[in-house]
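Um, can you check?
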Amino acid sequence: MDIAGISQTIFTFLIIIYSIILHEVAHGYAAYIQGDETAFRAGRLTLNPLPHIDMMGSVIIPLFAFLSFGTFFGWAKPVPYNPYNIRTRVGEAFVAAAGVLTNLLIAFLVGLVFKGLLMSGSLSEGVGKGLLTIILINVSLAFFNLIPIPPFDGMSILQALFPSLKSVSRFAYSPVFMVLAILIASVLYGQVMPSVLSYVFALLGVSS
């Protein structure tokens, strides 16, 4: 791998890490603005990566996924919050959805920059690749986390809105179930994402 390839890999890895961190911090802030200070007191409302990094989910899995399959997903340590401090089901759903909404907002804002530079003829190849990497990573993280399988955000949103869906079994949070959930989510992700990414490329006005 040449220097340009190494630089691109490092840049991609850093974007993955910080996109995951912003996703988790967003959960904490969504709870914080509703009166729950659990994440704040735990020191998790910070962009410092050290309190958030989960070695498997933030380093090993993202690197393996990117280098092996060219796809982007991973996780950080979940930001803690106390649901009893959240007054409404909609409030709980907002906390659950905050990470996904943050990733989509990042993709949208960077997409506006990309489109603006492209239309003005000011988009260089290097900048274009960098912006596109940010967009694709955040769209991928958002849709991966929207898959309605516990413990992903998609199921957390549904459980917040429909408490009857909440499971009393601890098996859903066991390592065995986590591996199974990732495998199932990866299959569903692989089925959905080609169409989603094609739509993103079409909106940006570039070929996939």
In short: The chain has a mean pLDDT of 86. Residues 89-120 form the longest helix (32 residues).
